[in-house]
Design a protein that fits this description.
Blueprint: E1 4-9, E2 12-17, H1 26-37, H2 41-48, H3 55-64, H4 66-83, H5 87-99, E3 106-109, E4 112-115, H6 123-128, E5 129-136, E6 142-149, H7 152-163, E7 170-174, E8 178-182
Antiparallel strand pairs: 1-2, 3-4, 5-6, 7-8
Helix pairs in contact: 1-2, 1-4, 2-3, 5-7
């Protein structure tokens, strides 16, 4: 790693790191590692060894650093290739959660409610089931079945944002007369 130089600033001392040829500092390397685990620049800067007082500005500066941002992008691509997952896979999984309904799992009729056999459920429907609980009486008879699906509303919201149907923005159009356009989409 590079050599450290202490530069006097009044009573405080700031540590400056020299770059070695084509290499970056140990702090920058630790920042990349920490940022890949938790993409919060401030937290990554603290974990890399920067002080909590300067972590926000250091994190923002490091993200703008060409070599650091290239390394982060390169490592993310490598990780994506290793996991063989892409954005399309994430969207497909969200669609499973968002578009599964209880009628895919249960049958309603004049004789009451019946749970469909799990072997007949499509994989997409099975993926949307978070948990199944069965209660029995002391004779062993089923008294209730509780089926919980993954968060449908949250999945629909994420899909809507991805597709541009749901917008979380406020647009400001400043002309001779100030006009503010706000877009809000309420839950239906």
């Amino acid at each position: 790693m590079g050599k450290m130089k202490r530069k006097k600033k009044g009573k405080k001392h700031a540590i400056k790191f020299k770059k070695t040829k084509g290499r970056w500092t140990e702090y920058q390397q630790r920042f990349v590692e920490a940022y890949l685990l938790d993409p919060n620049a401030t937290q990554a800067a603290v974990k890399a060894g920067y002080s909590k007082r300067t972590a926000y500005s250091q994190g923002q500066r490091l993200l703008k650093h060409v070599e650091v941002s290239r390394e982060i992008a390169k490592r993310r691509k490598e990780r994506e290739a290793r996991s063989a997952k892409s954005g399309d896979d994430v969207i497909a999984e969200l669609e499973k959660l968002a578009f599964t309904n209880m009628t895919d799992i249960l049958e309603f009729g004049p004789n009451g409610v019946r749970v469909k056999d799990s072997d007949t459920l499509p994989a997409a429907v099975q993926a949307a089931i978070e948990s199944v609980q069965e209660s029995r009486d002391k004779d062993g008879n089923v008294t209730s079945i509780r089926i919980k699906l993954h968060d449908k509303k949250g999945s629909l919201e994420l899909l809507g944002k991805h597709l541009g149907v749901i917008k979380d923005k406020v647009e400001h159009d400043i002309t001779e007369r100030t006009r503010i356009v706000c877009e809000f989409y309420a839950d239906e």
